[in-house]
């Protein structure tokens, strides 16, 4: 069996076995094991390089749709020397906001750092971007790309013996986190997961289901599947938006 490497693929370490790792391809997760720790590291590094350098699939409807989305940018200005109130995490070569203190800044979780003092960092290596922030002096002018926002009704697959049963849930995507609720907006929170470290793909057999594969920080394997309802929901303003912003 042959699986095509594309930009939508991902690779992670796992604790299923010693020296094991998994590769997420379209609609499928491959569990693999190296002969040693060093062997696994070399495989993971090579696979990540192959994913980063792979051309997009022209027939991939998810990538085509993603490229049509308009990015939303906003400013975060620091006129005095103070804690930035954000924790950045590496995602490929991007600096993504993992944590944010709303009392110190209006930066939102899931945003990607796009510019430092007027210099674009979108194509810079992660280490170069962090070096530009090390020992910074005011004024510091940052531009972030806001994480996509979307909400609406989906059908979510059950877990374990109930995997064949699908239930309607209200799904909310914002600030780099996917949450699902019972009975609609404001209902009981049923679950949530950060999007960093996850992948999404069309089911290769039906091309109807979006399967979101998620790897917990403990390296345990947990997967959820949702069926897109096809309705366009009304998207409210994200909480904690900075006063300065542009699109």
TrEMBL record:
InterPro entries: PH-like_dom_sf, PH_domain. Residues 219-247 are annotated as: Disordered. It comes from the Eukaryota. Gene3D superfamilies: Pleckstrin-homology domain (PH domain)/Phosphotyrosine-binding domain (PTB). Residues 1-52 form the PH domain. This is PH domain-containing protein. It comes from Ectocarpus siliculosus.
